[in-house]
């Protein structure tokens, strides 16, 4: 299936944006782009180090620049950082240039996925995941809820989740075409 619009995957850290995004891009036969990786590459530094040494504002500026460059892609699957939709006009930029898909995952699954790598996620460093994940989701939900498509992924089967995302995107595009 050839997709002419970009597909922006948003959601909490650990929701599967990168893993599922890779599979979705293969299924749709399109390019995959990850904003966090592009920031790390452009800055030659980790996100944690950027925030620690230059501040969150510098990081959010870099994030916006990377997103603006990603909007120039045509028909790509773009995995965003978990906080990207919540800052600047990033959500509006994504909505104006593609389809925004929120990968909604239960807190318990997020906590389980993040327990071995949360020290790499600035918003969760030095926190109790059982408290910080629900709090962070509560804060970010008002942006996530603006997505064009919300897909609940209560399962850990990555292939099935990717197929569900493709199915939802296909249905959305078919509905959009009829209008």
Explain what this protein looks like in three dimensions.
There is one protein chain. By secondary structure, this protein is α/β, with parallel strands linked by helices. It has a single domain, classed as Rossmann fold, CATH 3.40.50.300. 54% of the residues lie in helices and 12% in strands. The chain is built from eight helices and five strands. A five-stranded parallel beta sheet has the order 2-3-1-4-5, with helices on both faces. Helix 1 crosses helix 8 (158-178) and helix 6 (107-114) crosses helix 7. The mean pLDDT is 94.
Give a quick summary of the entry.
The chain has 179 residues and is α/β, with parallel strands linked by helices.
Q: From the alpha carbons, calculate the radius of gyration and give it in angstroms.
A: 16 Å
Mean pLDDT: 94
Q: Order of SSEs, N→C?
A: EHEHHHEHEHHEH
- The outline comes out as globular
The number of distinct structural domains comes to: 1
The CATH class is Alpha Beta
Strand order of the largest sheet: 2-3-1-4-5
So how many helices? Answer: 8
Layout of secondary structure:
Blueprint: E1 6-10, H1 17-28, E2 32-34, H2 35-43, H3 47-54, H4 56-70, E3 77-79, H5 90-96, E4 98-104, H6 107-114, H7 129-144, E5 149-152, H8 158-178
Parallel strand pairs: 1-3, 1-4, 2-3, 4-5
């Amino acid at each position: 299936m050839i997709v002419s619009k970009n597909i922006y995957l948003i959601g909490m850290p650990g929701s599967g944006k990168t893993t599922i995004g890779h599979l979705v891009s293969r299924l749709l036969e399109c390019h995959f782009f990850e904003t966090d990786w592009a920031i790390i590459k452009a800055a030659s530094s980790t996100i944690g180090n950027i925030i620690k040494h230059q501040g969150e504002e510098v990081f959010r500026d870099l994030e916006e620049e990377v997103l603006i460059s990603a909007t120039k892609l045509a028909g790509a699957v773009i995995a965003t950082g978990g906080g990207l939709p919540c800052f600047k006009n990033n959500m509006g930029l994504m909505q104006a240039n593609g389809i925004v898909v929120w990968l909604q995952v239960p807190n318990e699954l997020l906590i389980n996925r993040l327990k071995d790598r949360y020290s790499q996620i600035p918003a969760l460093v030095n926190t109790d995941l059982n408290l910080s994940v629900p709090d962070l989701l509560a804060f970010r939900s008002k942006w996530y809820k603006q997505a064009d498509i919300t897909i609940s992924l209560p399962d850990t089967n990555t292939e099935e989740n990717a197929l569900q995302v493709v199915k939802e995107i296909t249905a959305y595009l078919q509905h959009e075409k009829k209008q």
